[in-house]
# Entry
Amino acid sequence: QVQLVESGGDLVQPGGSLTLSCVGSAFPFSNNWMYWLRQAPGKGLEWVAGISEMGRLKDYSAAVNGRFSISRNNAANTLYLQMDNLKPEDTARYYCSVNRDGRRRGQGTQVTVSS
# Structure
């Protein structure tokens, strides 16, 4: 069974930066595309970014393109999301997933952007 544990969420001021991490286990991490999704209060799950198995291909939603950067360390079974120039609308619970639709995801980590 896929196990994913996210960490790194925090309260940060607008314009600030944050790096999220996700450690995967119980599945072949390096053989899977990996994704970040988020869910803001009262809204549905939103896809944020994806990265190919070896990290050569990366894709971002329009809302975060140019501000967020996804990366991975397959030796450590870890996925990252570097978030820069954070905005209040980035406030959400962030999840990593082996599915683009978030079907199999972790418990999430909370990011709050507020002054």
